[in-house]
Amino acid sequence: MKKMTKLTAVSMAAVLAAASLTACGSSTTPVASSAAETKAEAAGATEAAKEESAAPADGVASDKQLKVGICQLVQHSALDAATKGFIDVLKEEYGDNVFIDEQNAQGDSATCTTIINGFVSNEYDLILANATPALQSAMNATQDIPILGTSVTDYGTALAMDNFDASKGTGINISGTSDLAPLDQQEDMILELVPDVKNVSILYCSAEANSQYQASQIEKYLEEDGIAYKEFTFSDSNDLQSVVQSAVADCDAMYIPTDNTAASNMTVINNIVQPAGIPIICGEENMMKSGALATLSISYEDLGRATGKQAIEILSNGADVSTMPIAYAEATTKEYNKAYADAIGITIPDSYTAVE
Fold first, then answer.
1. Is residue 36 pLDDT above 80, yes or no?
2. Stronger pLDDT, 31 or 281, i.e. the higher one
């Protein structure tokens, strides 16, 4: 089987060595945290950020409070963890000398645009775009403010860049971290857990570019191993249930990439797939915990922390975001959902870690 080469952000090594990835904690940094359920609320929150007092903390040389805007696509555990890791790194570095305007678009790409336009009009120093639609909105909103992405699988796909080389940066005002776990190893898991598999259903939201990318890569590996597959796509959560029912009727195993819409609706998926006795291999840990059999896991909190360190390099050390390599998670773990395995009667190899 062909193996995907894992890109590593070489130039990030000095940054990551300077501050180890640790569990996140709280500090006294002001954080604006509101869910942008409507476009008006998003605009109002960023206007409030503009009026925030800029009193520096003791020990910080600058007399200007940094303003950082965070646009997170939707609330679910993986994205929440990445945002938390990012915020905690900035708190640890800047204390009260940074104002963080944290906004959630509630799964609506149009609201991402409204939120980020607010950040731009308020002349924020840096924008974090958490998930691909947020990154695409940020790219369209500004060519001047540094943008960092996180929980983005493939930047070349997300930014519509041909012949993209993650190790050389994007060439524009964007860099960040990728949540891509090696897809060849994910396909290996399907064969390892379901050795007699003949048909794989691949389920994802058609509106998510990075889900399409992951599906296409998994399909190449399945073809190499002579395994039949079929895509089942849904446009949003409204047609998810009917699509899942069709997918279950046509497979021995199911693969779901790191898809934000699927991640927010794993209970719906689980309630259909598990009773049918179908194993689901998915793209990340929190999806698995909510209703799948196994995953090749990365830490989204560590991913967010790595993105925070990129932000410090830009804000404090003058790093050029356009040449900053995309950074990747350095460690992966094979994990399985014990309750799911017990429910469908499947035996898991000892090389997997059980998650209760």
1. no
2. 281
